[in-house]
Design goal:
Helix content: 25-40%
Number of helices: 12
Radius of gyration: 33 Å
Distance between the termini: 37 Å
Strand content: 25-35%
CATH topology of the largest domain: THUMP fold
């Protein structure tokens, strides 16, 4: 809105009411801010100076002293800038944003001001404070203010007179390969003590000594000088299954990192060297937060290699091949497996087997190797065993004999969401 749209007399009359307020003197910033939308191209401080000059020219006497509205806040901007720079000193960042927690007294004063002069042309105090401190930080550091995705938010806490930092997480996408059975994807708390520590868990609080998340965290968290790390996986494999092939997609979230730009190829090598025979990560890439939801919600086909023990030997390989062929392309009705009923609703879910192949069969031992490509969410052990009829059809039911999965490997996770350039962090 241009000044011509408001009568000069009306502006001066509002300004006169403000400077005559019995609460005390008003600083240039707080006076000018009440008319922030009237004209553009000048600061609130300059706008306040111009208004005071006009009022003095009309004979108005203006009191001096500490501003009753901001309590001298805008006279001490450099103190806030110094506190902010000190807080930011140990952090690596390219951009930032300034925010303010307004104290109760200043909030009340601002409400009173708006009752006096109206708020239709005013800008909130914290908006000006954020901008003015932000401009000074930009000038001192060479960093830029970023409103959409700041790496660090500098919070001016007017209640405590301190600067706080909200350090946003770093996200890294990749795939992990797990070569050793018996390692869960994330930490499992001990079922008996629920993490407190007891004899059953050897006072570790955990069901298993290590996890994929903990192994990756142990290798990379210190490189970012972060407070913690969380692994978000695209599904998860059974604890006793290996994750082979191209690996399972994941995103790690590094919380409150002091470093944000670490050589990812170096990290891949570090994880490999520190977890020989256990774990490897590949294709690491900095990404945006949205990728977490995409990989967790994506429907990914899975390919498994299963070693199966036929309890009563099937004498003819042709009979086994016939059963495998019948499952090839079949829709499976799978009621929640008995082994996971304690944590999943008892429902019947439909999943499809896209391809099932017999790779090897030793009739003398009754051991065969089968490769299965199927929908994500199909429980493979139960597809083989039948789970006492809860999964239909199943290999065991088609063969008319008891079968057991001896070993299970995931050999491919087909993620069907292309991560285009808009998802990669710049």
């Amino acid at each position: 809105m241009e000044e011509s749209e408001l009568e000069k007399a009306e502006i001066l009359e509002r300004a006169r009411k403000i400077v005559r307020e019995e609460s005390g003197p008003i600083c240039d910033n707080c006076l000018g801010r009440q008319f922030a939308t009237v004209s553009s191209g000048i600061t609130n401080k300059k706008r306040g100076e111009i208004l005071k000059e006009a009022l003095r020219a009309e004979g108005e006497e203006l009191s001096e002293g500490k501003c009753w509205l901001c309590n001298g806040l805008f006279d001490n901007l450099e103190d806030w800038v110094s506190k902010a720079l000190e807080a930011l000193h140990d952090y690596e960042y390219d951009n930032f944003l300034v925010g303010t927690k307004v104290s109760g007294l200043i909030a009340e004063n601002e409400e009173l001001m708006w009752e006096i002069a109206g708020a239709s042309f005013a800008e909130p105090l914290k908006a000006e404070l954020n901008r003015e401190v932000g401009k000074r930080i930009e000038r001192e550091t060479g960093k830029i203010a970023e409103f959409d995705r700041p790496e660090i938010v500098v919070i001016l806490n007017l209640w405590t007179d301190e600067v706080e930092l909200q350090v946003n997480s770093v996200f890294i996408y990749g795939r992990y390969l797990k070569f050793l059975r018996g390692i869960p994807q994330t930490k499992w708390l001990c079922r008996k003590c629920h993490g407190r520590g007891c004899e059953r868990c050897n006072f570790t609080g955990k069901m298993y000594a290590e996890s994929v998340e903990e192994l990756i965290k142990g290798s990379i968290l210190n490189e970012f000088r972060g407070e913690d790390m969380v692994l978000h996986g695209s599904g998860r494999e059974d604890i006793d299954a290996r994750m082979l092939g191209s690996g399972r997609p994941f995103v790690v979230e590094l919380k409150e990192p002091k470093r944000r730009d670490v050589d990812l190829r170096m990290l891949e090598q570090k994880v490999k060297e520190e977890n020989v025979g256990k774990l490897q990560v590949t294709g690491l890439q900095y990404v945006k937060r949205e990728v977490v939801a995409r990989i967790k919600n994506a429907k990914a086909d899975k390919t498994y290699r299963v070693t199966v023990q036929l309890k009563a030997g099937v004498k003819k390989e042709d009979d086994l091949r016939a059963a495998v062929t019948e499952l090839n392309g079949a829709e499976i009705a799978q009621r929640t497996p008995t082994r996971v009923l304690h944590r999943r609703a008892d429902l019947v879910r439909k999943r499809r087997v896209y391809e099932m192949k017999l790779m090897n069969y030793a009739t003398a031992t009754g051991i065969c190797i089968i490769e299965i490509k199927c929908d994500g969410g199909l429980y493979i052990k139960e597809l083989i065993s039948g789970d006492a009829g809860r999964t239909k059809p199943s290999l065991g039911a088609l063969l008319g004999t008891e079968v057991e999965v001896k070993e299970l490997d995931v050999v491919d996770v087909g993620l069907d969401i292309p991560l285009d350039s808009s998802f990669y962090a710049v």
